[in-house]
Amino acid sequence: MSDNLFEPIALLIFIVVSAVGSFFALSRSSWFVDYAFFVVAFNRCARRIVDYHNGEFNPYSLISLTPLVVCGFGSLMVLGTVLRPSSTADTRIRKVLLPYSIAVAFAFVVGFANSKFAAVYALGDYLAPVGLVAFGSRFAFDEEICNRWCRNFCLIVFAVSGYGLWQFYTIPPWDAFWLLEVDFDGYMGQPEPTKMTLFSTLQERGPAGMFMAGGLILLLLRGVFSHVFRWPMAGVIGYAMLLTYTRTSVILCIAACVLFPVINRNANLKVLIGSILFLSAFVPLIVQQLPGGERAIERVSTLANLHEDGSFRGRLQFFRASLSEAMSEPLGLGLGSHGLSGKVGTAARSGMGDSTGYVQTLRTFGWIGAVLVSISLFGLWRNSSLAIERDNSDSTVLFFRAWFAAGMVVFYSGDWLFTATFFWVISGYVLGRVRYGEDFEFEDSSFDEPRYSDEPSLGFVFGNASNGDSR
Known about the structure:
50% of the residues are buried. By secondary structure, the chain is mostly helical. It is globular, with a radius of gyration of 22 Å. 69% of the residues lie in helices and 0% in strands.
């Protein structure tokens, strides 16, 4: 095992990836979003290949920091606007992002005092939502860009799923090398075909399953491709997701499909029927025909009998214990108090290693910080309701509401929220639709003079759409 922070190949990849990301961020290009998710999806795979080439695992490889740096550039582009008074047009965006930004800033101070360098490592994850929301909002007026984001995200998820299936049936040597070096054999099976849990290009099976779930529900509920490509892509993604053996991702997909017509009164029932048929018949049928599929079906089938599931009962007991511990920390333990703190090894105090989202939020942000995060989330939901009132046929807003509601359900079992997830891009889109709707309503044709504002807005940071906006 190596601890060389500046290993040459890793350093070169870090510089190139970060430079391209900074270019997209500084040029205010809508392609920043596409690039950010490409980096999120494939940086770990690149790191494993480099480590395998060097013959030693490097836990401090700079390649693993590329998503944090790239998303950090996007966030820095808007933090100034978020933290200072903005124009009337940006008030809604600021009201949503400001409480969250304050909570992250405070948690970083607490985390740095407690976890030192681990807080710095973790900061990028928590800053990523700010930049993704801002970029999503900035280009919400252009449905063509939003459709491109959705298509490219689904293509990235499809590529991740395809690699995952190849990984499951062949076991690439760099993946087997990594599995043994980090002592994950046993936890994720043995590095032999069909005997290892699929984790694809992500850091492990949990994040891989949730990443695929995001792409799957996007295909099912919003539909960004024709049926010729949509359902085969969904089949590949769904099968790969099942082979991660993460029930949280399955719950997210089922909950999103069921809640979609429940919370969206004008939703197309054909979407619900097609999605339920797909999830209940098509994927299980294919899984049963392929090696390793029985384990996935057995794992997921326990959802119907949770009170007898030992894993669920153990998680429930652990939830109670970790919640009690979190409640005893009014200020929280700050960023880096879990996950990365163990890797960096600098935390003075770490929380119990539970992945429960609600407990992790309370433990990380403390009582006041958790309230601030809740205010931001409530603001997102409230704005989605306003967006529906203005246009109840906007498929992206309808999809966001289903993902939001389902995500809050699975947040009990998985801390999926505070990272670079496509959910935040869609959140920004919703805020942007409300914002541009207000701008449109404010305009009055009886006035010939253009409107000016003395205060800065997101347009000040990103540049005006009418001035050669880079797409």
